[in-house]
Amino acid sequence: MKRTKVGIIGCGMISDTYFKASQKFPILDVVACSDIIPERSKKKEELYGVKAMTNEDIYNNPEIEIVINLTPPQVHNKIGMESLQAGKNFYSEKPFGVDMAEATQVYELGKKKGLRVGTAPDTFLGAGQQTARKLLDDGWIGTPMTGTAIVMGRGPEKWGQAPFFYDYGAGPMLDLGPYYMTALVNLLGPAKAVTAVTKKFYDFRTLGAEVSETYKDKYKPYDRYPVTIPTHLTGIIEFWNGALITVITSFDVYAHGHSPIEIYGTEGSMKVPDPNTFGGPVQVFRPGYDGWKDVPLSHIYSENSRSIGAAEMAYSMQVGRPHRVNSDLAYHVLEIMLSFQKSSDLGARVELKSKCERPAALPLGLEPGQVELP
To answer: What are phi and psi of 224, to 5 degrees?
Structure first.
């Protein structure tokens, strides 16, 4: 298939992963990059041989078909709207937006202009999550009834960019929740309702020895910075298939012993690997087993393959079918996440307004670089 030319906007911390992983997929041809700090994009030009440009240069380049957006969440809406207005298909780092109003603007503009919109995470296309999906589809644990999705820790409180993670548009739900909520929709289908309670246990956190350029005018090493958003969110998601999943996302926990995701069915139980990774292990317990059993991975892409979502979108553009990492999925996942705070504020169960199709499973037998069988 012909190579799809791509421009990357945002050359910060996550960009190297995308530059490297995109080279695994022949359908992607990253030809340009830009950043608000030109020195960053120049560095990527030296490292990867792509042309350092401005955002406007990327928008105005008729050969570039997809913009991959790796900027901070607070500007995802801006870059998305500009890309779509320029006639570019748009693929973004998560989350889809920091609120539903921003997400709706990008979602509706993409539909209106007939352009593709996709949003990370694409880790659910990795070997671990696809193996878990196949086990469910093949009935290894029967009908899913309940489960847990738990991601807890202290968060990136000592990082140089730490104040961002404890401010509006971030927090444990919008930072890590997209991996978990997307994995659950991949496994169980769309969600129906959320009932939750949220809390902020600390008013301040403390930086480490390094402070990023972004915050050097405000903070010195080991300064305290404010926590402005809830950092512990817990609740229950009801899915349309009848499953009830207990969720905890927290930046307030020193240590815990929970699996990332567990699904409990009528015929057994399954441990699903960390959805922020591409590999395993996947484990199953069924009546008669003497313990949890490791399951061999059924699919490829067990290593870091971020940008597989953009590759799958490019392939879908060429063959004229819906792509898996699509705006319907991203929009629904964002509503699930934001409904935790909404439910807590209301003190009530929140029924979701959006709904999406469960993404199609990746086929077995793919070769490296493929996202679909010929």
So the answer is: -90, 150
E strands within the chain?
4-9, 28-34, 51-52, 66-69, 89-92, 117-119, 144-152, 191-199, 204-206, 224-226, 232-239, 244-250, 261-265, 269-272, 282-285, 293-295, 350-351
The answer to whether residue 294 scores a pLDDT higher than 90 is: yes
Spatial separation of the C-alpha atoms in residues 186 and 359, rounded to whole Å = 6
What number is the average pLDDT over the span 18-43? 96
Q: Where among 237, 267, 295 does a domain terminate?
A: 295
10 Å Cβ neighbour count for 359? 21
Q: What is the pLDDT of residue 128?
A: 98
Check the CA dihedral 173-176-178-180 and report its sign. negative
User: If you average pLDDT over residues 58-65, what whole number do you get?
Assistant: 98
Last residue of a domain, one of 103, 119, 135: 119
Q: DSSP state, 123?
A: G
Instruction: Provide the token pair at 345.
Output: 């504020």
What's the whole-number average pLDDT of the chain?
96
Is 277 part of any domain? yes
Could you give the CA distance from residue 150 to residue 263 in angstroms, rounded to a whole number?
12
Residues in the chain, overall count: 374
Position 13 scores a pLDDT of 84
Handedness of CA 358, 181, 99, 164 (dihedral sign): negative
The boundaries of the domain holding residue 108 are 4-119
Q: What are the residues facing 238 on neighbouring strands?
A: 193, 244
Q: Are residues 284 and 161 in the same domain?
A: yes
Q: In the chain, how many domains are there?
A: 2
As beta bridge partners, residue 293 has: 284
Residue 117: name the closest of 331, 342, 365 by CA. Answer: 331
Same domain, 108 and 131: no
For the stretch 209-240, pLDDT in tens is 999 988 999 999 999 999 999 999 999 999 99
8 A C-beta contact, residue 196 and residue 343? yes
**Per-residue pLDDT, 210:** 95
**CATH assignment of the domain containing 218:** 3.30.360.10
pLDDT in tens, 123-156: 999 999 999 999 999 999 999 999 999 999 999 9
Please report the pLDDT score of residue 273 as a whole number: 98
